[in-house]
Amino acid sequence: MADDKERVALKDVVAKYLRKHPDFLRQNPELLEIVEIGHDSGAAVSLIERQVEQLRASNEELNRQLSRLKRIASENELLMSRLHRLTLELMTIDARPAFFDHLGDRLLNDFKADILQIWLFDPASAADAGGHVTAIDPDDATLEPFRGQLDKGGTVCGRLSESKLAFLFGNKGRWVQSTALVPLGPRGADGMMAIGSSDPARFYPGMGTLFLDLLAEVISTRLAHPGRTAQRRSA
User: Fold this and answer.
1) Which residues, 6+ apart, have CB-to-CB distance to 97 below 8 Å?
2) Cβ proximity of 139 and 164 under 8 Å
């Protein structure tokens, strides 16, 4: 028992010394070849072999992370290019129904989503906005479950409860597995947009939402400035 305690105490002393002198093995390279570490295969390997193995594994992980970052950067560049092109297209559309129809078509195609629904708090804006748009009173009690998400002021992605899906998409909400909920205006002052997909991995928590957040600003700006057609009617 005393020998076990002495060995534990000695291990602690050695470990403490190595932590305080991390260059010890570099100053004593001959030890690298005789120190052995157990391997998963059961064979013993030298410390330097184990270091090389760890460096190789670390390098592979860094390469995987770099590839992931490159893929994300490429996807973001493509999305921003699409946003720029879509914004230019929407700027040329005067009629509100055509504006929202074109917006819906492009969103469903560019995001490979299955369903889109836009809820606007201004009845006049929603009246002639097209099939994707529905008017709702901002104080409607059915919006209460969405208050927290709207107050965040940015797009929220992930899976929603059955009751929320039923409200957003009606009967079609049964097969929606992931959703992007986009507030329109500051803290959803103008309404909200919901994009649904049957793919549970299409919209997930933590995914990049800059494209949708910027697109929400485009929509809100259009709602604030209806376009030349409306201006000519009021002239």
Assistant:
1) 128, 129, 130
2) no
Residue 126 burial by Cβ neighbours in a 10 Å radius (0-12, 13-18, 19+) = buried
- List the Cα angle 106/136/129 in 5-degree steps: 40
Q: Is the pLDDT of residue 104 over 50?
A: yes
The count of other CB atoms within 10 Å of the CB of residue 3 is 7
Average pLDDT over residues 117-136: 85
Residue 209 in this model has a pLDDT that exceeds 70: yes
pLDDT band at 74 (very low <50, low <70, confident <90, very high): confident
Question: For residues 215 and 83, is the Cβ–Cβ distance under 8 A?
Answer: yes
Strand 178-184 relative to strand 191-197: parallel, antiparallel, unpaired? antiparallel
Query: For residues 60 and 25, what is the distance between their CA atoms, to the nearest angstrom?
Result: 25
Domains and CATH numbers, the chain: 63-234 (3.30.450.40)
Q: Is the pTM of this model over 0.70?
A: no
Residue of 5 and 127 predicted with greater confidence: 127
